[in-house]
Amino acid sequence: MAAVGDEVSTGVARRIALGAQGFGGGRPRRVDVRAVRRAIRQAGVLQLDSVNVLCRSHYLPVYSRVGNYPRAMLDELSWGAERELFEYFWGHKAALIPLENYPLMRWRMRAAERQVWADELSPEVTAPWSVVAGMRRLTAERPGYVDEVLRLVTEQGPLTAGEASPDGVRRKRTDPDPDPTTGKMWNWQDAKIAIEYLFCAGLVTIAGRRHFERVYDLTERVLPADVLEAPEPTADEARRELVRIAARGLGIGTLRELCGGSGQAHFPLPAATGREVIGELVDSGELIPVRVEDVKQQAYRWHEAEDQPVDARALLSPFDPLIWNRDRTHRLFDFFYRISIYTPAPQRIHGYYVLPFLLGDRLVARVDLKADRQNSALVVPTLTPEPNGADFVEPLAAELRQLVTWLALDHIRITATSPAAKSLTQHV
Length: 428
Hints:
Blueprint: E1 7-8, H1 10-20, H2 33-43, E2 46-47, H3 59-66, H4 71-79, E3 85-90, E4 93-98, H5 106-113, H6 129-141, H7 145-156, H8 190-200, E5 204-210, E6 213-218, H9 219-222, H10 225-228, H11 235-250, E7 252-254, H12 255-259, H13 271-283, E8 287-292, E9 299-302, E10 312-315, H14 326-333, E11 354-360, E12 362-372, E13 377-385, H15 393-406, E14 411-414, H16 419-427
Helix pairs in contact: 2-3, 5-8, 6-8, 7-8, 11-13, 15-16
């Protein structure tokens, strides 16, 4: 596809991206369920992660966009009787997704049921490696085992993975030829592999969370009948709609950012398929080819995305859709960001759970945060200003005061010792 389109400055591209993600108009004056729904749809998805140093990551993008909302409201939308979200994989990431998008995932579920897994040639059907490697072994070694797990869920569900073992047999790391899925990080047992496969295939889904552990049940007992009975789009129709969702959420992006593999995009597609879908959306006028300043790759702007003033003030989760593509974050914000939770302590530069601080349309500081629940304190172990010289201390103090209230903590404790941290101490 030939490169075409007007050139867009980095500043314009940045404001378009921020507006698409819900930061353009500031936080709503009234925080209610409509504001929370709107924030979820602007974010596109809420990535799930088990790290709970500050709070669970899926709560934070909504907070960043609307402010002090009840987390129980998001719990109800996610796992309540009248749920409006469901859990599945967005790209390779476990996420909460608006329920109306469930039919768009059905073709992926069918491919997973047939064990058509992602690889370098076909990155669009993804599953955790523990499922892929585990199912290859289970299919050969324990034929019928997955059916036994499904029967147990059918008869006794909802169940956790630990409760879903038909025979209670547990593999050990010392077993000969150990399953790679029972490694140090995941240590997945056969029942976990089987039930996660059933989840990827759409035969079971997540009924709720118990101390953040997944609870599985038959999909038809969890999701509304009208969603399950909705017309199923073809794979091509689903791909187009998923790229539309990504384009609305990004506002502006390259093909790789819209639908590339390797964790770069909202939803990965094979390169040839991605180019075909992008071409169709260009032909329909939904995507407008543009060139972004200093970016070699062809970019595309969603036809409704606008350059608008941005007056934002928000701490961003490391898993916020605005910044989860680290290369795009670097290009748009001149902000080189890598999460540090898996980095050995001596090698960490900015802290452990570091949240970028968005002020206006720039990322102006890195704030390491921790909720010390035993002492009811929001702790700031490290604070690192960006070299752009923005005066951020007073707005950050206001943001931290609101955050400590939202987390139901009593006070802020700043243990950081940088000059910026000393100034922040005077304001909080």
